[in-house]
Design goal:
One of its GO terms (molecular function) is DNA-directed DNA polymerase activity. By secondary structure, this protein is of the alpha+beta class. It is 39% helix and 16% strand.
Amino acid sequence: MNNDGCICAVCPIARRLGVPKFEPYFKIKSFLQKHGVVVRSSNYELYADLSEKMMNIIGRFADNQHIYSIDESFLHFDNYSKIITDWHQYGHDIRRAIWKETRLPVGVGFGPTATLAKAANHAAKKLPGFKGVALIDSQESSESILKQMSVGDVWGVGRRISKRLEQQGINSAFELSKVPIKIIRKEFSVVMERTVSELNGQKCLNWDEIKEPKKEIFSTRSFGQRVGDYHALKAALVQHGSIVSKKARNQSSTIKKLLIFASSSPHDDYYYKRSLIYQFPVATDNSCDIAQAIDHVLDEIFEPGVQFYRCGVGAIELSSRLFQQDDLFLPDNSNPALMKCLDKINNRWGQGTLKIGSEGKTEKWQMRREFLSPRYTSSWNDIPRIICS
């Protein structure tokens, strides 16, 4: 659950029981208790640590790796055909190594294009008979998998597009692959045209496009309890700003424009929302610059008497640090060495070990996580203790 308010993820067993996603927890609390469903709060620290361990293991199996999301990674096997003779076995080797070292079950899919590799990964996890590993290496294997996939399961096909396709009688991934490119281009977009071409084995997404950095980065969350204090709101916004700047540094981006907002609950009698855009004279990824920007606009956002329910910070215009053009009259104060030191300490000793002073020490405004599972791999206090006598 996110903020102990809404069900955001459901395991297969709970799904078969009928537990819906995105349902307010209080509405189905008695149902969950009646059936003995285990409820857990979002444990971001544990997820991030396990993800990092898993990605490091996956990276050992290829020279070129792209971490696509917290639980998904692409490997590019260039000139590996001479080394690997059994791709199924290689996939099982990857799964076995991850399970042995992290106890995380994964699916492995191989394909000649990124979209077909995603289709193979879907088959490895969701379709019967594959046992965690699927390979698309021929027309026959491609058709077999695509015929068993609904069109909505194709990478890049969202809900709206899948509904439009289904209304035209296109229900499976295989049927989508057979639609003429001219029709796809005319009725949909260039992106969908690329998807269909990739389903037919034509590489349209090169490695750089798959690894394209995010164009916007946001950190936003509702509070565990309402916030009506100026300094508490500032601390929350500065922490969101620190998260955004760290994500920007991770993809070698600098921030040109920053969106800062806070609001009460839309269910309140008086709904208050205020957002402002701060433009930096020189693009930056420095957490201190972000904190100063928040301090600069906070007086215009804060409203006395308002019980704030949600706030957030977003980098809405990013540029690459590798190709940044400096201003002749304004110095670059981003101080990459300082930020590298900050990230290194926090990565080594845990997020929040070192932070901006205006983030404050008290975190009563933090999200509610009453059902938090232990952070076995990232917190000293949560490491299991064994007493031998």
